[in-house]
């Protein structure tokens, strides 16, 4: 049985640039590097960067993305740091909780989000999406 999300691996075209982005700008902890990759982490998250010169840097047109959590008090400063670094935004927030949607140097779609599943479900109970059903443990 699955017990959780183990790690994320992002194919990158310039390892040094990506390590700098995740370590310096997003402030993940750099755990290890090698010729074609790196491991970075946050509490509860292991991120692998894997050099792939064939990666298409154009972001996909779909909504697939990876969201990081942060505290509400840190949100404005985080967004300002990314905007000051001219990080590209890819979407406006349309849901509960503060969110900032941005691209990494290889076009991976990322989000910084204030909130969790419980806060999202609370908001959805007040304003459900079309056809939404809830499955509560009884």
Automatic annotation (TrEMBL):
Q: Which Pfam families match?
A: Glyoxalase
UniProt EC number: 2.5.1.18
- What are the coiled-coil residue ranges? none
Q: Which residues form the VOC domain?
A: 4-115
| GO MF | glutathione transferase activity
> Which keywords fit this entry according to its UniProt record?
Transferase
> Which Gene3D superfamilies does this UniProt record tie to the protein?
2,3-Dihydroxybiphenyl 1,2-Dioxygenase, domain 1
Q: What is this protein called?
A: Fosfomycin resistance glutathione transferase
Q: Which organism is it from?
A: Pseudomonas azerbaijanorientalis
Q: Which gene encodes it?
A: fos
């Amino acid at each position: 049985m699955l017990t959780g999300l183990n790690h994320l691996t992002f194919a990158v075209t310039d390892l040094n640039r990506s390590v700098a982005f995740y370590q310096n700008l997003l402030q993940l902890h750099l755990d290890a590097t090698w010729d074609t990759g790196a491991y970075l982490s946050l509490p509860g998250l292991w991120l692998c960067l894997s050099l792939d010169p064939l990666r298409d840097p154009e972001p996909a047109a779909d909504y697939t993305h990876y969201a990081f959590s942060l505290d509400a008090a840190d949100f404005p400063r985080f967004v300002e740091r990314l905007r000051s670094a001219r990080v590209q935004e890819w979407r406006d927030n349309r849901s509960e909780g503060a969110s900032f949607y941005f691209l990494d140097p290889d076009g991976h779609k990322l989000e910084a989000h204030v909130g969790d599943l419980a806060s999202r479900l609370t908001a959805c109970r007040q304003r459900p999406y079309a056809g939404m059903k809830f499955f509560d443990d009884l």
